C-alpha cells in the first residue's frame, strides 16, 4: 500500500476490554496531528492484503487529551460491522491507520459564558467527554461539571474508576465537589445509580434532584453524545426548555453529536 499524506500507519500500544464486546485501545500518535478535546478522527484498516486493497474507515472519538503522546479510543464491537470486530482482535504491536485530520464540534469553543457544564452520554458516547475532562481547560472554564453516563448494565460502565477519582481528595483537592458523576443503568438495579433513561430522568426531575442542581439556559451548558434516539429526544426536550442549539455563527447553550 502506498504511503498517504492524509493518513499514516500507527502502532497499537494498548488494549483493554471492559466487557467481551466493549473495549478501549491506544495507538501511537501521528506527528503533527492536532485536535481539540471532544473531537474525533477516522481509523482505518485495509479490506484485504493486496496492494490495492480498499480502506475501511470509521470515525472514533478521542478519549485522550490533546496533550497526550498517545491516542486512546473507546469502542463496542458491532457483530455485523466491517471494522470493529477486527479492531477488537488487534494486539499490541499491530498496525492500523489514523487520519491526520480531526473533526467534530463537540468542543468547548461552541459555548460562551456558563457556570455549569453537563455532559450527557449513552454508551461509548462517553469517549469525547473523557477527553474534555482530561484537558485542564475545562476545569478553568466551569465551576461545576456534571457527567451523566447511561448504560444498559452495570458492567458496561467503562472509565468508572477514573471518573470517581476526579472528585477524590487524595487525587486533587481542588476538584472535590466540582465534578458530579451520575450513573444511569436501564436494565438492572445498581446501588448508588439511577434507574432509567436520561430522557425520562430529565422529564421527571429526578436527575436534577439527584445532583442537587438546577438546569438553567442562562448558566448551564449542555453537551450530549450517544445513540440517535437519545439525541433526537434530548434535542426536543432541551429546545422546548429554551436551550438553543449552538451554531458556528451563533453560539448557544446546547451541543449534540451522534455516536454513530
UniProtKB/TrEMBL annotation:
EC numbers: 1.18.1.2
Record protein name field: ferredoxin--NADP(+) reductase
Family: Belongs to the ferredoxin--NADP reductase type 1 family.
Chain coiled-coil ranges: none
InterPro entries the record matches: Cbr1-like_FAD-bd_dom, FAD-bd_FR_type, Flavoprot_Pyr_Nucl_cyt_Rdtase, FNR_bac, FNR_nucleotide-bd, FNR_type-1, OxRdtase_FAD/NAD-bd, Riboflavin_synthase-like_b-brl
Record-level Gene Ontology MF annotations: ferredoxin-NADP+ reductase activity; nucleotide binding
Domain of life: Bacteria
Record carries keyword Oxidoreductase: yes
Gene that specifies this protein: fpr_2
Catalytic activity: 2 reduced [2Fe-2S]-[ferredoxin] + NADP(+) + H(+) = 2 oxidized [2Fe-2S]-[ferredoxin] + NADPH
Keyword set, alphabetical order: Nucleotide-binding, Oxidoreductase
GO biological process: cellular response to oxidative stress; heme catabolic process
The keyword Nucleotide-binding appears for this protein: yes
Residue ranges annotated for the FAD-binding FR-type domain, each copy included: 5-109
